[in-house]
Specification:
The protein is an alpha/beta fold and 338 residues long. 51% of the residues lie in helices and 18% in strands. Strands 1, 2, 3, 4, 5, 6, 7, 8 and 9 form a 9-stranded mixed sheet that branches. Strand 1, helix 1 and strand 2 form a beta-alpha-beta unit. The termini are far apart.
Length: 338
């Protein structure tokens, strides 16, 4: 039976922690161990952790004396893990029944695969978790070569690996090292790219985890411009450090830059539509730096005109109001004369 260590970093997620841990402990067909790291939560996380550890010997618990942040906590979990496979699971997420066994069975059958992921289903906190149809036949599983995985990443330029479903070989994880502290907003994407550069990737075409949406989701605190800058840094890391291992790396790097620039430009357009002009200008500048030929795109020209109109709009509004007011006054005078 495969051993799977599930590292659960937690910071003020006491409300969700028990459900998360129980979803791991209820997994059948694997020898699961829960490793909780409390990053100095100010809620009752320590009390819940102690209760969980006392109730089940498979649960272990650490608490930091000072807050280290999510990346350093993740890396501590990597050092702590010793099972055949491991998963970093946020304390607000929940595993679906059988997910660990499906991933472990996949990698047991495919030693060339070092990262396996599946589908997640999102739900709003406070609402019941939706039932999900499971089609657990191995016929739905897919092995993607390193080249295919990286090609997909450069086309999508987004994190298409749902993090609560990403189960990896512990040995490979330790070989590749920890998450990058310098790109905290894109550290998971950079990690999947690193895995993709070194080995094939497995896809379990089934629901593997629930992602809980709530007001304190970490991703909600990521500013758009910084998020894109760090995504670029993730691709830079990939090609700078591992480009020699990737076929046609120059073409893929170019593809990633083009697609990321296009994505940023459309985000700039969305910001303009919402009236976020400062964000719009920052995003448009970043897109132009990534791919200068975007200046020839129609959407680029439309954004320029939108920004110009925004600058002169108060003056135009005053002129329009003046003439509207003037016509109304003239109409009142004529009516009074009649």
């Amino acid at each position: 039976m495969s051993q799977v260590d599930v590292v659960i970093p937690s910071y003020n997620y006491a409300l969700f922690l028990r459900t998360c841990v129980e979803s791991v402990l209820s997994q059948a067909g694997v020898d699961a161990r829960v490793l909780i790291i409390d990053d100095t939560s100010s809620d009752n996380t320590p009390e819940i952790c102690k209760e969980l550890a006392a109730q089940d010997l498979r649960v272990e618990f650490r608490r930091h004396s000072q807050n280290l942040g999510h990346v350093r906590t993740y890396n501590e979990g990597i050092e702590w893990a010793r099972g055949d496979y491991m998963l970093l699971l946020s304390a607000d997420d929940v595993l679906i029944e059988g997910s660990l066994k499906r991933a472990a069975d996949f990698m047991d059958c495919h030693p060339e695969v070092s990262l396996t992921y599946g589908k997640e289903i999102r739900f709003q906190s406070g609402e019941p978790m939706p039932e999900v149809p499971l089609n657990t036949s191995p016929e739905n599983w897919e092995v993607i070569t390193s080249q295919q995985f990286l090609e997909r990443a450069c086309e999508l330029v987004s994190n298409f690996v749902p993090t609560p479903t990403a189960i990896v070989r512990t040995e490979m994880q330790k070989k590749l090292g920890g998450y990058r502290t310098e790109i905290p907003h894109a550290c998971d994407m950079e990690m999947w790219l690193r895995f993709g550069a070194h080995a094939s990737v497995g896809v379990v075409n089934d629901y593997q985890a629930y992602y809980r949406k709530h007001a304190d989701n970490m991703s909600l605190n990521y500013p758009g411009v910084m998020d894109h800058q760090q995504l670029k840094a993730a691709f830079d890391r990939l090609f700078t450090e591992y480009g020699r291992m990737i076929d046609d790396s120059t073409r893929l790097w170019t593809l990633a830059y083009q697609n990321l620039a296009q994505k940023i430009l459309w985000d700039a357009y969305s910001a303009a539509e919402c009236g976020s002009w400062v964000e719009c200008r920052k995003l448009q500048t970043l897109a132009g730096e990534l791919w200068p030929t975007l200046h020839n795109e129609k959407v680029w020209s439309r954004l320029i005109w939108k920004q110009r109109l925004h600058l002169i709009w108060p003056t135009l509004r005053s002129i329009i109001n003046y003439f509207q007011y003037g016509r109304k006054c003239n109409a009142n005078v004529l009516n009074a004369g009649c």
